[in-house]
Amino acid sequence: MTTTKYKRVLLKLSGEAFSGRASYGIDTATLTKISKQIRQVIEMGVGVAIVVGGGNIWRGAKAEQEGMDRVTADYAGMLATVINALALQDTLEKEGVTTRTQSAIGIHEVAEPYIRRRAIRHLEKDRAVILAGGTGNSYMTTDTAAALRAIEIEAEVLLMAKNNVDGIYSADPNKQYDAKKFDKLTHQEALNMRPEVMDVTALSLCLENKLSIIVFDLQASRSIERVVTGDFIGTLVSNE
Q: CA-to-CA distance for 68 and 94, rounded, in angstroms?
């Protein structure tokens, strides 16, 4: 069996990751690719919890700009994460992975309520746990939900999987060709930079609780597997 660096991880999948190369919706081939990697990682003995975003379906910030009440827009976004969670659950189960979806907002017909001890027990039984609904509160991003849940379930690292972004840069590499990529940063350095790839509140939570973060490109070959085995890809944010 391949040696892994971590025994329990929290994987944050942005909504954009679900759409693959498209600009909207859910791409089945992309979900299958992600699910195969998650299955492989679980078979390697790693507990995997997944927080999903909803930006491929709904953009609360955009809706607010167009006049929608912010709280209403945020709750609509939480529902979008439930759709993504169910799609991922279905694909994981087709890959033979026993999966449980938990939601921070009440939606009992399709998902369990989020209960920390139950989530940990599922992980101990080698089940994938998908965490939907963000934190259940408006004004909180799914990045913040990922940091919070990682701390609660005692994950060793927060894996921030990005869509065609392979780490943290000094500027947007798509707009500034000479932008510098960072291999390692401290939490405080990342906070000072206020990188677009991660929410400041989430970073602060990780700093306060000494939780390491790895920002990496989900589209890279075997990216999730490589990260959990300690392969040096992306950007590591830690106390060191």
A: 38
